[in-house]
């Protein structure tokens, strides 16, 4: 999911940060015959798709149940005020089929826009718990593990309090060592520099609260779409940078294009009615011996080239002395 180039009636089973406390318990309940098949297992998983709890998730094992609500004992805690303390119960049968049951909530439960008291929840369906939007998907163990690591990164000490990304301190404290390690290994290192398109208009139209939600959402979509070894920082305001050690220009352009598509294709209307969000990216592979300052300036110029070409695009930086044609 993140390679380049291409959660209470059973509280011990799940937690608010994402699924089962022990993935080996899942595999035992699924009665898998061979360890090598683990990554092909499809586990029913509900994930928050918008708002402050975006990406928080929980997985269900066969013959297990899961309560969603504001109560701290819920299998998946949803913090929005529209959610009742014990709002809805999800149950998974021995065939992996998931049923949703409203628990007499104040603001109701809907599946794909239709209010329900009890209903079948199929993969791809949207579940509305009060005002909180979730989606049911079938995920592999590797995808669930990646989601958990993304949430851990978002809550790491010293990260930007709004987005959960690294702060600009990364540029002085960690980037030089990253570059040195790449140089010593003879490996490429590429930077993706991004700027949210028409962000001022988002703030002016929907307010700064929605603007903050957009930045949180973009940060989560970015971390979901990169490797654990890549570093994403909030450079300033609506600008961000991603550093991809070991990745050259072509693979990094592919990553930037995937991030661009995921951001543009995200259902932002669940954050605010009529909201659409796009981003422009510039990609620059570091030239051997190039200073970090010069490298970042090339990525910045490439980003502005994407802006000047119509926005919602990815542009690769020119290499000095090389004819781009």
Give the structural class: alpha+beta
Question: What is the global morphology?
Answer: elongated
Low-confidence runs of at least 5 consecutive residues: 1-39
Query: Averaged pLDDT, please?
Result: 88
Major pleated sheet: 6 strands, antiparallel
Count of DSSP H/I helices: 8
Q: What does this 3D model show about the protein?
A:
The structure is a single chain. The chain is an alpha+beta fold. Helices cover 30% and strands 25% of the residues. It contains 8 helices and 16 strands. The two termini are 33 Å apart. The model is unreliable at 1-39 (pLDDT under 50).
Compact summary:
The protein is of the alpha+beta class. Helix content is 30%, strand content 25%. The protein has a 6-stranded antiparallel β-sheet.
What are the main properties of this structure?
six-stranded antiparallel β-sheet; 8 helices; alpha+beta; 325 residues; disordered N terminus; 30% helix
Secondary structure layout:
Layout: H1 23-29, E1 43-48, E2 57-59, E3 64-69, E4 76-77, E5 88-92, E6 98-102, E7 109-111, E8 114-116, E9 118-121, E10 126-129, E11 132-139, H2 141-154, H3 169-173, H4 175-185, E12 189-196, H5 199-206, H6 208-224, E13 231-236, E14 239-245, H7 249-265, E15 279-285, H8 292-308, E16 314-316
Parallel strand pairs: 3-4, 15-16
Antiparallel strand pairs: 1-2, 1-11, 3-5, 5-6, 6-9, 7-8, 7-10, 10-11, 12-14, 12-15, 13-14
Helix pairs in contact: 5-6
């Amino acid at each position: 999911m993140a390679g380049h180039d291409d959660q209470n009636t059973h509280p011990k089973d799940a937690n608010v940060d994402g699924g089962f406390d022990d993935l080996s318990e899942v595999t035992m309940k699924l009665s898998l015959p061979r360890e090598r098949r683990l990554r092909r297992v499809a586990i029913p998983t509900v994930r928050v798709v918008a708002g402050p709890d975006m990406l928080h998730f929980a997985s269900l094992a066969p013959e297990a149940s899961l309560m969603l609500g504001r109560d701290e004992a819920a299998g998946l805690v949803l913090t929005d005020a529209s959610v009742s303390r014990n709002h809805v119960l999800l149950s998974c049968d021995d065939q992996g089929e998931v049923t949703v049951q409203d628990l007499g909530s104040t603001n109701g439960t809907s599946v794909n826009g239709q209010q329900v008291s009890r209903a079948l929840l199929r993969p791809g369906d949207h579940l509305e718990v009060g005002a909180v939007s979730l989606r049911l998907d079938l995920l592999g163990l590797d995808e669930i593990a990646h989601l958990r690591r993304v949430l851990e990164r978002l809550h790491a000490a010293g990260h930007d309090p709004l987005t959960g990304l690294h702060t600009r301190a990364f540029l002085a404290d960690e980037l030089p060592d990253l570059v040195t390690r790449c140089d010593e290994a003879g490996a490429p290192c590429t930077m993706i520099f991004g700027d949210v398109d028409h962000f001022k208009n988002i703030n002016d139209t929907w307010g700064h609260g929605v603007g903050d939600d957009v930045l949180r959402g973009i940060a989560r979509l970015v971390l979901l779409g990169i490797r654990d070894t890549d570093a994403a920082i909030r450079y300033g305001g609506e600008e961000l940078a991603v550093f991809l050690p070991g990745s050259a220009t072509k693979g990094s352009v592919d990553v930037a294009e995937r991030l661009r598509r995921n951001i543009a294709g995200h259902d932002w209307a669940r954050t605010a009615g009529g909201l659409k969000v796009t981003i422009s990216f510039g990609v620059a592979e570091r030239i051997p011996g190039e200073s970090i300052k010069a490298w970042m300036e090339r990525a910045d110029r490439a980003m502005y080239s994407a802006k000047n070409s119509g926005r919602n695009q990815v542009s690769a930086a020119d290499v000095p002395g090389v004819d781009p044609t």
